[in-house]
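User: Could you walk me through two proteins back to back? I'd like the raw sequence and the structure tokens for each, with a short line separating them so I can tell where one ends and the next begins.

Assistant: Of course. Protein one, sequence then structure:
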Amino acid sequence: MGGHHAISGAAAWLAITTPVTIGSIDLGFGVLQMDRWETLAGAIVCAGAALLPDADHHGATIARSLPPISSIFARVIGQVSGGHRNGTHSIIGIAFFILLAWLANGWDVQTAALGTVYPAAALFAILLISFAVKSLKFMPATLCWIIALAAGAFVGMNAPAENQWFLLAVAIGVIVHVVGDMLTIGGCNLIWPIKIRSPRWFRKLPVVGGVWKANGRVALPILAETGSQAEWILASLLTTYVGIALIVA
């Protein structure tokens, strides 16, 4: 579900960037060193990026996040990628979104007043942040615009010393989304557009028969169906972790 994808992205970002320690237990890796505002901005961007693969569905959270831009974006992506859980949920789709982030991250402009700014990253961040905000379900479109514009401006004008952070946030978010979907019954086809169907005898096997689908998708359905009780429990645990990590950060 949209909100659960977003919280998964934020949790993954904070686990990698924040040295979260409770007692003698390390809950974060602290790979990138950033100040508190940069950590927060990265978490929101990563949460939004964790919704990007669902741009292939016109009814998804991101299609309704920043109208009319987001609805047009979702319609185009959906047509090009062959529908839901196809192109955008594959290695090709992951590489495409990372490429967009790399191109955006590589365009910087030197200004006398603001120093180095990243206009393309700011625009991309506005779209991603609106995805994350909309996943909260109770935000009207106007407020989504306000939050997204403010946070996007911050991203464009306050790049951390680790200037690859934006690219990393998008990459982590997209990958976390696909992994999450592969933990549900529906699964994903990572090698799309190649489709290798499972033989009928394999699908009849106990336990492992549901891992390889007739449509070529692969799943490790630990969370069962989308929106299951197991998914809600996992999302609740991740939300708790995000709260702790943000406080520590």
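----
Protein two, same layout:
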Amino acid sequence: MLTGIHAAFIGGDARQLEVIKKFIELDAAVTLIGFDNWESNFTGAVKRPLSADVLRDVDALILPIVGSDDKGYVESIFCSKPLQLTEEILAALPAHCCIYTGIARSFLMSVAAKQNLGLVELMDRDDVAIYNSIPTVEGALMMTIQNTDFTIHNSNSLVLGLGRVGVSMARALHALGAHVRVGARKSSDLARIFEMGLTPFHIDELSQQVDDADLIFNTIPHVIITAKVIANMQHHALIIDLASKPGGADFRYAEKRGIKAILAPGLPGIVAPKTAGQIIANTLSRLVFEQTGNRRNRNGSQG
């Protein structure tokens, strides 16, 4: 239970609703900031405007998966007014407060360090990222089917990167009967790809590997599918870029060559917001409980 914990939620999308429900069920005191246009009221939660006064007794500040931009702006589909965090507003948080977000950019990292506040990036955690890879892969498969006139089965499919999403993507394609090749750099990853029954190749060989590729799924968050690589692709090839913005493909050159390339970050929140929200809610509620318990134990031992 989260009895006695004050959690403030700032902005977000449909995923955040599942997290809010979970915190209310666990008896937390919940403040909603940036939910002006959300018509259904949560029993046990109060809506407030963004201000320093609202944050003075907050134990956990919960931001959307995308966090804030480098100027402190937080996205919210439930608010028509811009939400901007400032250093002055965050300075009102008590010293024990922890900020939870999916991804922290420079603004959040800088302010948290300056104010000596805890900062947790959920997408850095293996448990969240692995669970999240399930709706990511389902969304990628949906986009593939919508944008091709051939089956995934028997296709030549490339997966770039063997991280949390790359592993799940490669397994799903293999299960659907695709001929799967996976590009990676580390020798241990290449060995793992071979052990999975797939065909490994070093990412430096990408230009030579794409000449017969029908489908290319990128998970590497820097430009790896360059103009040189795209020049070797077949015209019917489809690129699904699952890396975070700005992605890992030269989209301008792909368009020039008539090759369809789709940047698709944040698929869990688009294709399965309920499941994606529950994944975040379960992990986040546990983390907040542990953080509060640790703080209480420290305070008790000091007393």
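The radius of gyration is 22 Å.

Let me know if you want the two compared in more detail.
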